[in-house]
Amino acid sequence: MSTAKARTAHAKAILGPELHQRLADTKVLLVGAGGIGCELLKNIVLTGFGDITLLDLDTIDLSNLNRQFLFKKKDVKQSKALTPNDVDNVMVGSLPRWRQIPCFVAAQTAAPFNPNVRITPIYGNIKEPQYDLEWFQQFDIVLNALDNLDARRHVNKMCMATQIPLVESGTAGYLGQVQPLIKDRTECFDCIPKPTPKTFPVCTIRSTPSQPIHCIVWSKSYLMGQLFGEDEDAVGELDEAEKQGENAQEIATLRREAQAFQAVRKALRSSISPGAAKLVFQKVFDADIRNLLIMSDMWRARAPPVPLDFDAIMDGTFELRRQEPPAVAAAAAAPNGKANGIHNTVNAAASGSGSKGANGVATTDDGTSAAPAAGSALKDQKQLSLKDNVELFISSTERLAARLQAGEETIAFDKDDDDALDFVTATSNLRSAAYGIGGKTRWEVKEMAGNIIPAIATTNAIVSGLIVLQALQVLRKAYDKLRNVHLQVKPAVPLSTITMCGPNPSCGVCRDTYGKVLCDPKRALLGDIVKGVLGGDEREVSVYEDKRVLSDPDWEDNYERTLESLNVARGMFLTIVDEEGEWGTISMGLGVLPADHPADAPTFVLPDPLPRPPRKVKAPPPMPETPLRVSLKRAAPGDEGDDDVIDLEPTPKRPRIKVADEAIKSPSKKRKLDEDGLILMDGKDDRLDDDIIVID
Ligand SMILES: Nc1ncnc2c1ncn2[C@@H]1O[C@H](COP(=O)(O)OP(=O)(O)OP(=O)(O)O)[C@@H](O)[C@H]1O
Ligand SMILES: [Zn+2]
């Protein structure tokens, strides 16, 4: 038996000769050549897939090499997936450069395992217009190995529109998930809304932090912007506010703050200001904190912050003692001595007394960490004393200032920018010290500020294996065997499988009826296409492109305009929503006319037959629901510690628009309205608050 035959013998025995044979001709699109993508590419080549298109938009970073094993150090800064044409003629050393590009290296490495494999690498963004419905249609199956919601949602929509099965996946540390998605058979990626990223109330960040993450967010999102970002004319804005008659005393305080920021910004940009870092320190960690302390109400029930003294810290005479909040002090003085359960949070990072800091690291009296001992840990993992933080603050501020003076206009936080990371580490720790919060190492700050969840190669490997198993069930059409698989941190049950759910009837993506229109956007008119798609049906419709309304029954002005003039182009969708809510939504993906389309022929070609949406089943009137109660109260001091609970601040009211009485039953339209902050009124008796604009 030849080596190649011997290598495929097991796969053939497991898959059966029929499926094994079919894999050789199966066209698979793999989107993403990162942690999962590299593993998956190796797996599908070894399994016997014969025709693989690999698409990725990125170049290789040094930090990829720990898990993206197809890449080596010499590949850093190369694209992850280039076509030979992009780099064909460039010789590097004795080899043409394409032979050193990872995907080609991967293809070459894979060849001995499956001499028949054809890998087509593409360096591009899957959202680019040329990857339209027509392009997607060439594939039998799509495998996602992406790392962001936006691209995942896009591929999901393209697969729903073309009815191509998709296997979706993701990992986060030890957790992983694999989900096969097939139009009309299973739910799609958008059937269940995804949670939005965690946010914090502004006041917690600006005035009353209680956790290290609050100080880190303050440093990277607020302080860095104020010092190294665009110069916003805060002083001018305040002049304007004063003219409008706003509170003069508050304006005066804010003006002092804004002017002080202007002064330090100027010092940072001037090479004749060697003491700029000290000026920044004194403003941010001393003067601003003193200003906050004036607002005594704020500190009635929580321990006030302590202004930091630059010179005293540097000469070792600074003693950080936090006061108890008056309410606690009073309770402590009361006969039963109880302190309402509120602890005096003695600063753990800076002046702990052999106790444990908030981060659980024991601290010594001089504020240095007891473990790991300074010097014994890696530089990044060392706990920093108050003085260490001031020194790091000075050096990083000077490095950033030098960059401004050398011509960089603005510097924003980037976790891979050492100067910025040092600055955020130092300033967040100093702020933590002032507020009695435990400090974090540079390593921890990088993880938290960069929202990094450690990538674990083993998790990627397990998930990639599971993707192949699900893909094989899809290709066997063994739909009842498809499973949503979760990898979890439960030693007894590391894998759990969930039987697939059907589509969510109110999903605004997979419940649409899709079609394709090939057109010349320069000449094709919106109205002609819409009327053509409706095929003489006289229904009243609204037309959208993503969230843009292009027309509605009372406003058809755009019908006479070309798609190009409406910025509607290849790769986008025209969504046609039935105004009566009687018929499903039609989504038409736009493609280009074939090269041989005669110049005098119609400006667009519709599918035959035309897409026909299903008639909708009228939903029964909604049952009254117990309203969800959300506390708008700020957390009281002492309520801290539950990382998952976010205090909600009342958000400013927005005018809400009541969509006139006829209920709109289209999920697509509902999604678009929801995303725009509009409210869909389901019943005639629905009421809203006073701040409604009624449109009819
Ligand atoms: N719109 C897009 N088009 C093409 N490729 C994309 C797009 N968005 C992200 N990618 C690619 O997807 C890949 C994701 O890989 P990445 O390693 O970041 O995550 P992962 O595969 O989930 O693994 P890990 O958890 O180990 O980080 C990256 O190489 C990135 O360039
Ligand atoms: Zn769906």
From TrEMBL:
Residues 14-82, 105-488 form the THIF-type NAD/FAD binding fold domain. GO terms for biological process: protein sumoylation. Pathway: Protein modification; protein sumoylation. One of its GO terms (molecular function) is ATP binding. ATP binds at residues 32-37, 56, 64-67, 80, 147-152. It comes from the Eukaryota. Residues 351-362 have a biased composition (Low complexity). Belongs to the ubiquitin-activating E1 family. Heterodimer. This is Ubiquitin-activating enzyme E1-like. It comes from Mycena maculata.
